[in-house]
Write a structure and sequence with these properties.
Layout (H helix, E strand, L loop, with lengths): L17 E4 L9 H7 L7 E8 H6 L3 H11 L4 E3 L4 E3 L9 H13 L7 E6 L1 H13 L5 E6 L2 H5 L9 E3 L2 E5 L7 E5 L8 H18 L1 H15 L3 H21 L16 H10 L6 H18 L5 H14 L21 H10 L5 E4 L5 E4 L4 H14 L7
This protein binds nicotinamide-adenine-dinucleotide and zinc ion.
The site of nicotinamide-adenine-dinucleotide has 34 residues, from helix 2, helix 5, helix 6, strand 8 and helix 7.
Length: 393
């Protein structure tokens, strides 16, 4: 028996800048300082900095550079302790002891909801440190400084944090908009090639379903990207990040209450392949393969021109991304591709009905609710040939 009801109705606005820059830790550069003082509140802002261990190892002295910057701007920045280095890479997203340590550090230094966590690193560190910051006092101000191509072009600009549990990727996490995202292109110099090129797959992904011009740009830029041409990479990152941001803003569903996940195009296969490779294959590399698989299926469903698929595959190969991996061919006892379990896992992750985003002509997208498994089989064979690999066994 319902005795009464009052309908609550709240809208909360999130605004944050995504800034592209170079050498923001130069003591004379005002960018970071302006980010912290944007609230106009006055006084010194308490800041706790976490550094990605892989980044710190590739750039000895980075912690000292951060400290020097904060000293030079001590009128507004109170760096509460020397930057804390945390392990870089996917491992941090499985490590709940470290999550506790990060939260302990936040409490130990008495950070409040007006204090800042400055997270500098790849997508994994931003996800894990961002998660800890979002739980502490129900959400501290997080300034993200993505330091990989993937995190600058895609994962670092959005509103999600996450960790893995029992081997299930991103099964734990929060929606938490950052205070600001500051992408410093100079940080990318020290990236190993795998992580330099990996993020480019996400740029192709979003171009294929949202922006035909950008797709043309990328196919024309493949060799320059492979040769680490910085100007080309900067344009790639900027355009990709803006497409991701536009989607989050205009898609009408920033917190993913609905089922379709346009930014997850190609990701059902990518996530499965990452797991099948025991995470030895990088996310971006897995995304290249996953996007190529779904692009082939789209061709066969009459949703994409064959020539676009060919351009995509050739561009991936020219820029140094894979389109095939031997684990794609793993089979269950009954002959079924293990890869196909990824469809079911993806369905579970989004809840209920399977909804995949597919291209609907170059630069547009639509949703499909089923995928013919025979087409996936075919895609694997087509991509094996494209990669020049002979039939296994
Ligand atoms: N939150 C989201 O919306 C979202 C979206 C997509 C992906 N992601 C997540 O992002 C993660 C992948 O991020 P990633 O591709 O940035 O990889 P990553 O964070 O695993 O970093 C890759 C490696 O590069 C090192 N590194 C980072 N910056 C460096 C630099 N400038 N120089 C040298 N080494 C450096 C790291 O220590 C690590 O070993 C995955 O966990 C994925 O789930 C999150
Ligand atoms: Zn991705």
């Amino acid at each position: 028996m319902r005795l009464g009801e009052y309908r609550q109705d709240i809208s909360v606005r999130f605004r944050y800048p995504v800034i592209f820059a170079r050498n923001v830790f130069d003591p004379a550069d005002g960018t970071l300082r302006e980010v912290f003082t944007e609230d106009g509140e006055g006084g010194r802002r308490r800041v706790l900095c976490f550094l990605d261990g892989g980044l710190a190892a590739a750039r000895p002295g980075l912690a000292a550079v951060v400290e020097e910057y904060c000293r030079a701007n001590a009128d507004v920045i109170d760096l509460v302790r020397t930057p804390r280095t945390v392990p870089g890479g996917e491992g941090i997203k499985n490590d709940y002891r470290l999550l506790m340590e990060v939260m302990d550090t936040i409490l130990e230094y008495r950070l409040c909801r007006h204090s800042f966590v400055l997270a500098v690193g790849g997508g994994a560190v931003l996800d894990a440190v961002g998660f800890a910051a979002s739980l502490s006092h129900r959400g501290l101000r997080t300034v993200r400084m993505p330091s990989t191509v993937l995190s600058q072009a895609d994962s670092g600009v959005g509103v999600k944090t996450g960790m893995n549990l029992h081997g299930v990727k991103n099964s734990i996490g929060t929606f938490n908009a950052p205070w600001a995202v500051l992408s410093d292109f100079a940080l990318l110099d020290s990236l190993p090639f795998e992580h330099w090129i990996g993020g480019v797959a996400e740029a192709f992904k979003v171009a294929l379903i949202r922006d035909a011009d950008f797709f043309e740009f990328l196919t024309g830029a493949a060799e320059r990207l492979r040769a680490r041409d910085m100007e080309t990479m900067e344009e790639t990152i900027r355009r990709s990040a803006i497409l991701h941001l536009d989607h989050i803003r205009r898609g009408g569903d920033p917190f993913e209450f609905g089922r379709a996940r346009p930014l997850d195009f190609g990701h059902w296969a990518a996530h499965k392949l990452e797991a099948l490779s025991s995470y030895r294959l990088g996310h971006g590399q897995a995304v290249a393969v996953g996007v190529a698989i779904d692009a082939w299926c789209a061709v066969r469903e009459g949703m994409l021109e064959r020539s676009v698929f060919d351009d995509l595959v050739q561009a991936f190969l020219r820029c140094g991304l894979p389109v095939y991996h031997e684990k794609l061919e793993l089979r269950h006892g009954d002959g079924r591709l293990v890869l196909l379990d990824g469809l079911e896992e993806f369905r579970e992750h989004i809840g209920g009905r399977l909804t995949l985003v597919f291209p609907d002509g170059l630069g547009s997208m639509t949703e499909v609710t089923q995928l013919e498994t025979g087409l996936v089989e075919e895609a694997v064979a087509v991509l094996r040939r494209a990669a020049g690999v002979r039939v296994p066994g």
